[in-house]
Structure formats: C-alpha cells, structure tokens
Amino acid sequence: MRPARRNVKMKHFAYEFDQKNIPDSFEERVNVLRKIGKQAKKDFEEKYSHLSSWFRDYDALYLLSYCVYYFSTYEAGLDEEVEKGHLEFPPHFQEILQAFSLCTEQAVTTRPLRDQAEPFKKEMREIGDAMLWKMFDIPENISTEKEINAYNLRTEMMTHTLAIRGWAYDHQIKNVLADLCELLADDCIKAFGFSLAPLFKLLYVLLDKVNDRINVHRDKVNNILTLISYDQVFDAYEKEFPHLAISDKKTRERIWEHFGKNLNYMRFAVLSHSDLCLDKIFTFSAEEIAAYTDDQFSKDQIIFIFDKLSYRFKELKDFNKEYFVLDNPMHSRPFIKLDDENYFSSLWSHLPNLSIRLLETLIEGDPGLKSKFNQVKADYLEKQIQKLFKENFPDAQIFSGTQWRDPVSYQQFENDLLVVQGPFAIIVECKSGLPTPAAKRGAPERLFKTLQSLVEEPSEQALRFIEFLKRTDNTVNLSTKNGKKFSLDKSGIRYFIPLGITFAQLAAIGTNLKLLIDAGVTDKCIPDLITSINLTDLQIIFDILDSPAQRIHYLQKRREFEVHNKFSGDEMDLLAFYLDTGFNLGKCEFEETWFYNLNMKSKEIDPYILNKEAGIETSRPELLMTKWWKDILYSLKMRKSETWLESSYILLNFHHEEQKGFEKMYNELVGQIKEAKTTHKHNWVIFSSVNPHRRFMLYAYPYIDTDIKERNLMIEDILTHDIPENTKGALLIAVNLDKQHYPYSALATRLSAELFDSNFSAIRAN
C-alpha cells in the first residue's frame, strides 16, 4: 500500500495594494513592466540557446535520465511544492530538455555530469524565471489599458500552459480515458485492428515498472556504498550491474591506487559510473512492452503505436524552439525511438496528464475517427454531468436535453441539463471543446475564439433559457431531444443558478470571468457571464460538499465571489478557500483594494482525494463550522421541511467567527433565562451578517413555559417587526429549554424575493 499523504494547511494571503509605491501614470507603470520584460527576454534568449550545448557535451539519454532520477524523483507520500513552496525542477523543464535533445544527433560520450549538475540545474531555474518575466515585454503597439489587459490574458494562458500539467487527479484521468476509449472501441478496431483502451492501461503499467526500476537501482547503489573494503565494492558493483566486465586483481589494485586508496573517492566514482546506466531505467523494447499487455497487443502493433508517439534524434532540428516552451511537441509524441524496436522517454510520469493529447495523436490521421471522437466527447460530457447531478441531488427533478422554442423569434433551442431542487433551478450548459495548440501559445484570435466558445456561448444559452422560463406560465410544456414530452411545474422555482461545464481544464482563466471582460474577449458584463467549471473539478466539489444545500450554496457564492473579488487560483484552490470561509468575507468582499492569492490552497484537498483512492482511511475536508451549525444543517437535511434549502442557504452565509459570536449571545441569554434574570417573558437574540450588501439575519428564541400556539405567535411577531430593510433572508431558531431540544425545536424563515446578491437579480424568477 502506498504511504498516506499527510494533511496540510496552506496559508492564503489577502493583499491590500500600496498605492504609494506604484507610479502615478498608466504609461509609467507599463514602462516599468517593459523594462523588466526586455531584460528577461535578453536573459532568456542567451540562456535558452545555450541549452543545445549540453547535448553536444553529454549523451542525451544520460542527461535526460539524470534529471529525472536526481531532480524529479521524491519519496513516496511527499509533495515538494508543499514542503518547499515550489518545484525546483518543474515538469516543463524536463519536456523542454527532451525536445532539445531531438534537435541534434545523440552525442557519443560517457562524460559524467559530476560537479556540473548544480550549475546545470541553476541554469534551468534561471531559464524558467526568464520565461515568466519576459512575458512583460509588452509590444510597443499595445498602449491602451484594454489592449494591455488583453495581452495580460494571453500571458496568463501561456503561464498556465507553461507551469500546469495536471488537468485532473490520476484516478479521474484513468476513468475518463477508459470511458472514451470504450466508446471509440468499435471504430478503433475497424481503423487499427485493436481497441485503444488497453493501451492507456499499459502506459500506467510501464510507469509502475519505471518506478520499480528506479527503486531497484537506488537500492543497488546504496547497498554498494555501505561496503567497507574496495574488494567488496568491486564484487558488489560487478554483481549488481552484470553488463560490466569482470575485473582481475591487478586491475582492481591499479584503480585502487588511482583513487589514493581512499574508499570515499572510490564510492563517488562508482556512483558516477552507475549513473551511466540510468537510461536503461527509462527504456523498453517493443517485445518487453508487448509482454506486459497479456497478449492484447502483438509486438508489431506495439511498434505501430509507439512509432506514432515517437520522434527520432535530429527529427526536430527545424522545429521552432520557442514552441518548446508553450506547445511542446513532446505533449503529443513523448517517446524517443532509439532503433527498430527500442523506445526511451524521460516523461513517463507526465503521460497521464498528456493522455488526451496522445489519444488525439493516434486518431488524427483518420478524419472519420477524429470526427467520431469529437461527438463521443460531447455526448460523454453531457451524460457524465447528468449522472453526477442525479447522484448528488437524489431528490431533484432532472431533465436532460430539453428543447424549447422562443415565443418571439420562434427559434428552437436546447438546454443540456435542468436540475430543479425545491425553489432552486440549476441550468447547466456543457462544452466539450479543448484549447488548440495555437491558443495555448497565446495566439490572440485562436485564444479569444476558444474562450468565447467555452465561456461566452454557454452563458448565452443558459441565460436565454432562464428568461424563457421566467416569462412562461407556472406550467410549461417541453420536450427532450429524444422526443419525450413533459410538463414542468415552475410555480415553486424562485431562484436560478446558471452553470457552464467544460471538458477542458482552463485553470485560472476559467475561474476568473473578470479577466475575460477586462481583456476584451467579450463585450458582455456581469451578470451576462456564468460560472464555468471543469467536469473533473465538479466531481471533486460534489464529493467534498456533503449535501445538496452546500452544493447549491457553493455554486451561487462561487459566482458572487468571482464577480466582486480579484484573486489568483484555480477551481480546487477556490474550493479549499470555500471550506475555510464559505466565501463569506464580510465588508472586504466589496472593497476593490484587496487581492486574494489562493495559489496552492488546493494542496489541503490533495491528501483526502489521493488517500481515498489508495484505500487509505482519511477524514473528508469539511466546511469550517461550529458543532451547533453542523447539527442544525444536518437536521435540516434529514427532516427536509418545506424551506429547508432556504434555511440552509441562510445559515451557510455566516462565517465561522459570526457563528461563534451568535452562539455566545445565545448562550448568555439562556444563562440569564435559567437564572431568572430577564425582565420579560419572551426574549430573543438578534444577529446580522457583517456584509451590508448581502444582509442575512439570525434570531435565537429560547423559551420556557410556552404552549405551541403562543410560541408561534411570538415567532411571527419577531419576524414581522424586527427585520431591517434590504434583508435577503432571516432565520429564527426556536429552542424549548424545558424539553432541552437539540439542535432546535422549531425554525422559521422570512425570505426576500432576492435571496442572492443583487447583481444577479436579473436571473431571479418573477
């Protein structure tokens, strides 16, 4: 069993901009960035071009293997980003190096890296820093703030492409690939004579074999280095590495003399010499690979497949090396073909995250198969989303592929998924497109078109359907794309939540609609754009949030947070931040000077997901709440009173500190009642949420010696007379102290027509 990942707590930072240190004029600020960018560009060009020299001086397979073994291999269960705050040798470094190695012939040399290892690593770090900073070399023809924002969006996309390789957790990638390959199985058998599903299972088998080989090599070398005589070192080294020639006594004595009879020097020489064998760890013959497939692939079929996914040395000599940074050819062909049937890669651990690209590479030569893949991907996304909502909203009405006709234009439209849970309706639109290579490189037209397709189009579709539902009578007759007719009673629907679901992982760009608006990608404004979440991210969100009420709250508050705040982070960072705060930020949510750096906040979620998949018992991350709050919400979920979702929504709009403050006031009042220190028969606590722009009220009414009729009249009186203006929702918690009911005896709510942020009143039901 794999070691359990330990739980971590990442800090998140909210920065308030110091206006004093920022140049006054827009032009001055841009010039500061240009100066930084120009110097970084110069540094990058000098150091980047120098990379080729390393492959003239050192054998490519040795150098690539050395980097994986010493710079990218960690103890199981550890996360270098958590331990150090960054990756010293991130994945894109290895991808760039492998691409560079294919621009020239393989150098024939056994020269070891030795004392050049750290300078080499330092040079790669400097190149990595320059890659990022050179993006501030803003072209002179870009001068307006809008143009600068558009340029910044492109650099944001490029930075994401550069630094991020994971689009989902490992088990999610396996599941998605297995499903897609199964759906394509018949077509692949027709085109190739075999299904691709076993291939992606095979890649994981080979990755495990590589990891085993790394551990075996390390154990061999470590055992040799613990020996206490030079003869023992010779014997063990020749035994563990049988390809070496057996040395005689005279040869051993000569070598021993050469090292000054110093055992430590000799150990170091053995270590350096053993590094020359590292490439064998990462090399497989076609025959070996076929043997791991349980006869599902023949040797010739393996050669056919791996040839499609490989380059030979010197094959990239005319390739634009700038593209190695953002659209690396290794993403689609990560293997090096050494001879007729041997294949090497230093990117074995990258393969899961490259799997969709590999699938596209294998089918790209067949137009019919490629077209089928695009259709399969779209259908798969819709079905997975439908399944996900059915599992996590078991009491909801769910309608897939709803067709409707606009009563004004008579044009027919289709909604991908409609989820009705009590007074809430979630309107889902799916987009299965993937960013093109040109978009990843930041090509403006391709990038903007991609983002419009994945974000703007679902927004238009979802909001248009909402407007249609708002205008219709309480009962509307609809049909599905399969021709099934149904009637939707919308009289109970009061609030709409639109949601876009993508197959692609857009990271920070997908989570931050403000970037798209500021960059001029779209001329739409809030609330004309809707939240966009990746399929695999939504699976994690629904797994961690333990009730329909929390999931509804997340989807709506996630959108509100995105509108009001400047932040950096992807969807999983946002989820981890939500677990800390519920997106309840008080007054600072509406203050423009705050910026939330949430990057790497998702590391708090990783241990739960990874341990769960490994079969290791681990606690589920939870929304930070007091015990009483949790128990009230749980009781609401189990009892399912008429307004349980609205009551839950109100409770979830109070931060942990507000919860503690309310409970303190309640407990003080209970103490006074029990000690007969109150002057009135009926007493209650009034508590308002901190945020005046989104005000919710809580009332605690502990009572004794009161019959139900009197109690209900009192509750009605409190909720009628003590509600401040502009309150979106009020919840009264009544507790019979005589009977010691827990967590409450009765709940009552008073709701505004606008439970959500006023910015979204346009999508509220009439």
Structural class: alpha/beta
Count of DSSP H/I helices: 29
Strand line-up of the largest beta sheet: 10-9-6-7-8-11-12
Percent of residues in β-strands: 5-15%
Question: How is this structure best summarized?
Answer:
This protein has 766 residues and is an alpha/beta fold. The chain is 49% helix and 13% strand.
Fold and architecture overview:
The protein is an alpha/beta fold and 766 residues long. It folds into three domains: 17-205 and 284-365, no CATH class; 372-613, no CATH class; 627-763, no CATH class. 49% of the residues lie in helices and 13% in strands. It contains 29 helices and 18 strands. The strands form four sheets. It has a seven-stranded mixed sheet, with helices on both faces. The protein has a four-stranded mixed sheet with strand order 2-5-4-3. Helix 24 links the parallel strand 13 (566-568) and strand 14. Helix 17 (367-392) runs parallel beside helix 22 and helix 23 (548-564) packs across helix 27 (644-651). The longest helix is centred in the N-terminal third of the chain and has 32 residues, at 26-57. The two termini are 56 Å apart. Residues 761-766 have low confidence and may be disordered.
